[in-house]
Amino acid sequence: MAVMMGKIVQNLPSAYSCQQNRQFCTLYQRDRCVQYKHNLLLFQGRKLPWTRISTMQLRNVSNNKQRVVYCNAALSTTAVPSLEKVDFLKLQNGSDIRGVAVDGVAGEPLNLTEPVTQAIAAAFAAWLLDKKKADSSTRLKISIGHDSRISAQKLQDAASRGIASVGFDVVQYGLASTPAMFNSTLTKNEDFLCPVDGAIMITASHLPYNRNGFKFFTNEGGLGKPDIKDILERAANIYNGFTPESLEEAERKASSSITKVDYMAIYASNLVTAVRKASGNIGICEDYFFFLFSHAYFLTWIWITEKPLEGFHIVVDAGNGAGGFFAGNVLEPLGAITTGSQFLEPDGNKVTEWKTNLSKFLYLTNCYLSKSKPDQFSGLFPNHIPNPEDKAAMKAITQAVLDNKADLGIIFDTDVDRSAAVDSTGREFNRNRLIALMSAIVLEEHPGTTIVTDSVTSDGLTIFIEKKLGGKHHRFKRGYKNVIDEGIRLNSVGEESHLAIETSGHGALKENHWLDDGAYLMLLNKLASARASGQTGGSKVLTDLVEELQEPGVAVELRLKIDQNHADLKGGSFQDYGNAVLKHLTNKIESDPKLEKAPVNHEGVRVSGYGGWFLLRLSLHDPVLPLNIEAPSNEDAIKLGLAVVAAVNEFSALDISALTKFVQK
Ligand SMILES: O=P(O)(O)OC[C@H]1O[C@H](O)[C@H](O)[C@@H](O)[C@@H]1O
Asked: Measured in angstroms, how far is the CA atom of residue 454 from the centroid of ligand 1?
């Protein structure tokens, strides 16, 4: 496949510029590009003017080293290798599309090529046409953005050809965040060609550098699983109808259909406005009132609302993903100091070498002490995985907060739809603690509301939400889309829910259109409004909110793999096998007086006992049964683990080595 479809590029910068030259420089009409009419976010002190610089330029500024990567060469004008519908359906990953977009990793052949991408984007456009009940003479608009992955540019170009081939306009944003893409379907601003009818985010979140994928949005939110299946089926038909002529025609149409817009400028500026508003909470009439009666007060008020985070020191860790804008274009205009922020430069390259032997030594020592796998050797991002669930990532932002004596740290995943925070003492706000914090803030405003969470949340969280905060905890399934859809469903059947949030760091608020973007903005709002009401003490206002959350002594997640080729599956699917394991476990539990099955549970088997609990469930995507155990002590956790071992050890296709190791500790 690699030989047939790819070429080795020795120098990444030249590969990019070569692609850009071939496909765009001759095609773009400069006068079609919207200029930055509202350039409120200029160069911020020591920082690069993020909104005006491309991913590639930034990477070159930050790192001049040449790297060896394998790039998939375009096949725009030649016939494409035939693919079955099933090959397309394999690209579905829940409500996203994910695949391998960069060649060169053993055992991971390319399946997200440019022609495949072109077909998927064309299929999304056709799906949108049906959904909007428009006829093909209607010119709809689709925006495309991407994170920092090295395959982003070529996939953006291919997707643009696919959209243009259906007769739509394409609005390219370049480096962008997932929430911004959804937002572009809601923003009303003609100068920026908004709102668009649909949006595509090119991302594979925190997965290794060779992967990529797509998330799709309309003004109703992200597409669901059935829509993605429909799009992939359409894509298979479109792909198999490709001819050299149709590919050429798509390229020609793209030349007159693409406009480049700096949407991230308006998105960041909207975030700034939202925090200013939340901190002031005073309307126009009151402004006037204060002006009449106290000139000095009026000036003070303006100062507070323009820079509601003045004096706060907040460090951002973007993990070399797309979240670097947050420091210079959101926090700094709000008055925050962001020195010590790290990994803001978009860089989707894998680690090829350590900058110093000391950093290698420190990293390996840390992995050894925290018993975590040294991921940087498996081809991930240059500094740490951009993932708030990752131990090394959390360690990095914690260290940055402590080293800089900052008030708060915020860390994002690659496409900025997940986040976590760290307070000034180095205490992490992620997983259950992040949910507890958000719940406390939301319940202040909406007493009694239902908080929807994923299935792996702790018993302590339920007690906190229900007993301390007076809300209702609805523990649902894993998967951000499941959680958000459940929040929407509850409201539709008359149960008020204002927050849907996952331990992974995805969080959405009802008042923010259930946009998967709520979490970190709420933290800023809280800090800003505390400051406006005269409270001091940095992030203590946040820490105090979760003081009464009970936390387990031990919390582990073990992922038990199902060998799909094992004879014990008897030709069946891994899902059937996994369900058989869960059924057997249920039966075993029922006969154990020390264990009690959760009376209400929406996913897998959740069991209480020995002062703690465990949950065994099927992964949303992988042939894996993730097992979460939480208990007051290691001894109790081992007892829970042993109960699982006793029930599952006769399933020979299930790899329980991680669990046996855990119970032998
Ligand atoms: O079921 P798992 O394998 O643990 O994966 C579950 C996770 O999958 C993806 O990463 C989704 O974006 C998350 O929302 C979800 O929680």
From this structure: 10
